[in-house]
Specification:
Elements: H1 3-20, H2 25-38, H3 43-49, H4 53-70, H5 81-96, H6 102-113, H7 121-131, H8 140-156
């Protein structure tokens, strides 16, 4: 993956995680700055990257959808399945990058979606397994390995490009 592709994926992930409430608006602005440094450049991206931390919380609602659109990326409102699935994939990539442990990853997924989102059902079950690890026949390492494999499967799925009409 080229540095511009990685920066686009990181920006898309930050946007999805912001919609879900997992990251702050200023984190999205930081990702926009990183995208500019990596070589992505559009007027909307420049405006987003120029936001101060104080402006980010207010201005991101208007700026983020436009900046993503100019880059050919999709803004996913959290209310829809596509937005939830984009956020799950972003969390999976964070876990694979070492920003979350497998246990933290499954806990966040289970806490956020329970057993309701088909994409994350297995992760919710694995979170339950962590809770009974002392009484079962599996070890933490075995459950961690299965969580890591599931995160790899989720992260490898292509990013959806279906447009959305609902603003944040």
């Amino acid at each position: 993956m080229s540095s511009t592709e990685a920066a686009a994926t990181a920006l898309q992930d930050h946007a999805a995680l912001w919609s879900l409430g997992e990251v702050r608006a200023s984190d999205v602005v930081d990702a926009a700055c990183d995208a500019l440094v990596a070589g992505l450049d559009t007027p909307g991206l420049r405006v987003l990257a120029a936001c101060t931390r104080a402006e980010a919380d207010h201005d991101i609602h208007a700026l983020l959808p436009e900046a993503l659109d100019e880059l050919g990326l999709t803004f996913y409102p959290v209310a829809g399945d596509a937005g939830q699935e984009a956020a799950v994939r972003a969390l999976a990539r964070r876990m694979l990058a070492g920003e979350l442990t497998p246990r933290q990853f499954t806990f966040r997924i289970h806490e956020r979606f329970g057993h309701e989102l088909p994409l994350t059902e297995r992760l919710a079950e694995l979170d339950d397994e962590y809770d009974i690890i002392d009484h079962g026949d599996r070890t933490v390492d075995q459950v961690d390995a299965e969580v890591t494999a599931e995160a790899g499967r989720l992260a490898a799925q292509p990013r959806s490009t279906e447009p959305t009409d609902t603003p944040c």
